[in-house]
Fold:
Amino acid sequence: MFSWLKCFFFAKRGDQFAQTALVLPVIMLATMGLLDMTMAGFASVNANNAANYGARIGSVTQRGAAGAAYSGALTSIAHADVGDYIVNVSGGGHPGAQIAVTVEWEVPNHMASISTLWGGTADTQLGGSSVSTFRQEGW
Structure:
């Protein structure tokens, strides 16, 4: 009887299952967090490139600089598969004026409900904005 209890308490048969049950949720959370941060970084780079491209197009256009900057920024992010973007343009109109293009971006936050467990907010979107300012050329 004693040998049976000894075998029962010191057996190693369920160790791998128990280790997997403890580690797998942590790995899944880390993977989802990395996926969210990757999408946010990709959308941020897209927004930054669109703002720069739109402001550059607006700075070298002689008439309708704001419209050209707006359409240039939209053209730059037209093929971005990740994120939602909003483009705003201000300034321009005469040579030497500053033309500013702001591109705001948002991507889904898959970790929103889980982040409330450690004091985070339950925002369902990750977002930011990118601003680029150029001086309008004139000749």
The chain has a mean pLDDT of 87.
